[in-house]
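Incident review: delayed structure delivery

Summary: a single-chain prediction request sat in the queue longer than the usual turnaround. Root cause was a stuck worker, restarted by the on-call engineer. No data loss occurred. The affected request and its eventual output are reproduced below so the record is complete for anyone auditing the incident later.

Affected input:
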Amino acid sequence: MEPGHAIAIFGREPTLSAWELFRLTHSTSVPVLTRELAVLPLPVELTPAQLQRRSGGLIKVGIVQGDVADLSELEHILGKQWPDLIPAGSTARIAFGGSAYDAGNAPSRSFRREIGSMLQRLKREMVGTGRAARIVVSKESTLSAAALTQGKILERGFELLVLCHPDGLTWGTTATMQDISAYGDRDVGRPARDTLSGMLPPKVAQVMVNLAQVRKDEKLLDPFCGSGTILQEAALLGVQHLQASDISAKAVADTEENFAWLMQHLPETSTVEFSAQVLDAAQLEKIYGSSTFDVVITEPYLGPPQRGTPQGRVLLPLVSALSRQYTTWLQSIAKVLKPNGRTVMVWPFYRVEPQGYFLQLQKAAHEAGFTVVAPPKQLLDASWFRSTPRGSVLYNRPDQIVGREIIILHKRA
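Output delivered after worker restart:
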């Protein structure tokens, strides 16, 4: 692998992480892609820190340092280079750790133990030079962003990344990590939350904004704004023209309250043009006019909560009714989108073994003037990538019956 290439470490939803990464970097393929990570050259305008800040799906971004044949060679290199891996000017006790990842060859438990032993020997070398040092460990097989934060690794030391592949090993170091406390503030720290109507996680909302590839000067609409999560994440990514609407007056009030909080707590969003109003999503053109928005990103009504194990005789009428409702909303969204505009939407699906129940919307989307933007072939060919034959991807927690099908639609000119 090429020194200087980025190592993008995926979060718990590798499908969303990988597709977002490809859209952020405008990639159709990358040199290395597994369920855990991708290794790729970054565009010149995108640094590792910028990639991490923009991404909702990456837990950390590292830099390739070089290839080695085995851990013995790596230990020899680290014995010479560890002082250069510590942040300049740091005199505190060195905090460091290591994580092994599958880059084509899954690391075994014994291999991870060998890395732990290597780090112990490296610690003794550090202490032998007069520097206090400690190894940060985790109950998980790799160090999470939380472990890096709590251990202050990037402030006082380094994280070693060992990528295992059929040709040997590649090593790198972590350059930046996800700011988990900031996501918590934007989720549970906001003044207005509605747990009864369901909430889109801020990370997923950020992924959706990145899937849409929204430019800062484009006009963005969310016609099912809920508590304003999608527009909040768009504002933090620099999008300057935001419109919210919802049929629920409470949702609009929540969105306005949350945006006032956002602008007060994060001054970089204070220049955003934002407005919200109560509006039926089937009537968008009457208020906004035709061909007004560049992008629509939204999670509409997902249907009633499902408890227990619903039967097909219950789900089939529900899927049929929601398909008709979504058809109306697709037609309405198409009218307010500019030619070559795009929408990123969530469609509900229902997981009932041994099959799933999906809304029937392919024909409706086509007749409304949309073309599906499917993930690149490299992603679709990956066994772990959760896609559908119609070019969407799936997201849900293991215990959820109602899942999210996320799709990109392009309005034909």
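Verification: The mean pLDDT is 95.
Action items: add queue-age alerting; document worker restart procedure.
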